[in-house]
Amino acid sequence: MAFLVAVGIAATASEGAVGAGAATCTATAPDPFGPFGRGMPLLRSKIGRGHVLTGVVLSAAGCKPLRHASVQFWQANRNGDYTRAGSATVFTDRNGRFRFEGQFPPSYEDRPGHIHIRVIAPDHVSLLARYVPPPGERRGTIRLVLRPAAL
Q1: Any residues with CB less than 8 A from the CB of 66 and at least 6 apart, and which?
Q2: Is 131 exposed, middle or buried, given 0-12, 13-18 or 19+ CB atoms closer than 10 A?
């Protein structure tokens, strides 16, 4: 089972999966951990092969899809280094959906393989999250819910 980690608390994929609990939209708790590269990663949806991550970005206000949200990914190499080669930026479609493909994230320094995610959308608080897929899993689906800036 995949995990979406936030401030040391894990939410199971069924809680964060696209379509699960669609009637309620509790904002995804932020995860302040993680070394990130500087600037915005290159605009691309693929940095390798082996793991596909899809998802949706929603607003906590009304559970509405956030179209054209910037979803940035950072993935370490086997040495635990974060470089531009392991980063990407995609934008959500009109339904708030995105797709990202990379190699399965390697573990390093006793940390499980993971992908850091930053989501930026107008009029919403930016979100930092960490996705931890189960070993060997080739696909994952997540649901990221942003708080409106006014709340």
Answers
A1: 57, 58, 59, 92, 96, 121, 124, 146
A2: buried
Residues 6+ apart with CB under 8 A from 95: 56, 65, 67
Domain positions in the chain are 3-146
Answer whether 66's CB lies under 8 Å from 90's CB.
no
Which tokens sit at 6? Answer: 């936030």
Question: pLDDT (tens digit, 0 to 9) for every residue of the chain, 151 residues total?
Answer: 455 543 322 333 333 333 334 457 999 999 876 666 667 799 999 999 999 999 999 999 999 999 999 999 999 888 888 888 999 999 999 999 999 999 999 998 888 999 999 999 999 999 999 999 998 899 999 999 999 997 5
| CATH number for domain 3-146, candidates 3.40.50.720, 3.40.50.2300, 2.60.130.10, 3.40.50.12500 | 2.60.130.10
- CA 151 to CA 67: how far, in whole Å? 20
Quote the distance between the C-alpha of residue 87 and its chain's center: 12
- DSSP three-state, residue 96: coil
pTM: 0.83
